[in-house]
Amino acid sequence: MNIASFDSVAAILVIPIGSAALLAVLPGYRLTARLNVVASLATFLSALSLFVIERPPPGPYVLVDDLNIVFIVLNTFVGFTTSIFSASYIAHELEAGRLTPVYLRFYHAMYQTMMFGMNLAFVSNNIGLMWVAVEIATLTTVLMVGIYRTHAALEAAWKYFILGSVGIAFALFGTILVYMAARPVMGEGQDGMVWTLLIQHAANFDPALLNVAFIFLLLGYGTKVGLAPLHAWLPDAHAEGPTPISAVLSGLLLNVALYALLRFKILLAANPAAIAPGPLMVTMGLVSLLFAAFMLYRRRDIKRLFAYSSIEHMGIIVFAFGMGGPLANFAGLLHMVMHSLTKSAIFYAVGHISQIKGTQRISRIRGLTATHPALGWGLVTGVVAIAGLPPLGIFMSEFLVVSSTFARQPLLAIVLVFGLLLAFGALTLRLTSVAFGEPRGSTKSAEASYVPMFAHLSLVLIAGLYLPAPLVTWFQHVARLLG
Question: Which of 115, 151, 264, 300 is deepest in the core (most CB within 10 A)?
């Protein structure tokens, strides 16, 4: 293995977990917040280096390929920008007395542990280790959701823990069934858990076991993705936890479970006698889209509103990957990236807005563009982007999803467009009341860093106007890998 490639992969894992241990013992908010940012930046730079160095060959535990680099780079970038946002956001929470210094030390340590878990899930070549990594990331976010120690926050954390545990148990059972399907062909031992070896022999596995395994995996990891009707934990976790965790949940953690699901989809597709995973994913994707679109009209809490928007967009992404084919897979990848960047930017804006106004109730927030132009217009841009309007990047990905579906399944395309228009109407209705009109609530100035929000929105705008040829070629290659 190339030394540089080994160092980069090791750094993606060692930096977060090492920083977590250090942050757990260091006193002082300013020091730990800065260390959190530095560690996140170092992890992001290590991920970027995977583009320019020779990749390590697949081993029994580690895999770096074109598919997971998409997720790793996106994960570390949003993790870095969220750490910057978190520094100013959490400082306000400390001043307001909502958090104590002891909990803040815990918060930063858990943040880096969460990044470690997600990065480990992405680079794992062992399906058992990937399951463990997803569980690490889940448990750390459960602890962070309940960090305010209010009744509502603890209730949300417990709901997340219970439903997440059920989901991860289903995913574990599905993983065991995959191993059982592989054992007669590959023998006992860890080879039956190594994804690159599994994919080579998948055509010879018992299709009946694979079919049952994928059902459990879809239900298990689908719970983590936030697909309806397995979504019940997600709105509460967004609404009651710290806003940086809402940004990470929507922008990153949902992608971790999606990545695991895609790996098993590829595995199932390699066995010609197994069921096609596509129709199952298409069904759950459409159900999630339609359910979330209707529920958006009933939200009164601004963070819950965007939590249901995340369910909607994960439904679109799962639908696109379920449709399969080069164009739909390309659209799914692009939509995943655009959603992560846009939704995290929206939560950056919403976090500071809720601190200024002292509430998350939509009815108590009015006239933001007049009282706080940077935050107000940032939120407007984010909602315009997430609603799928041109010239922003989500319009491009949604257009590709719809056009590829019209070419192959016109009836499904009609349902898809109906869901998109329904969600668009709800988001527009809420946006006009929050951003415009007679100002309501506090007008005090915001002590916030707008760099993360506008950096994300700028990338989304650029992607809507122009995608560099190397990026398009890379995504096309990954789309072919997905089948």
Answer: 115
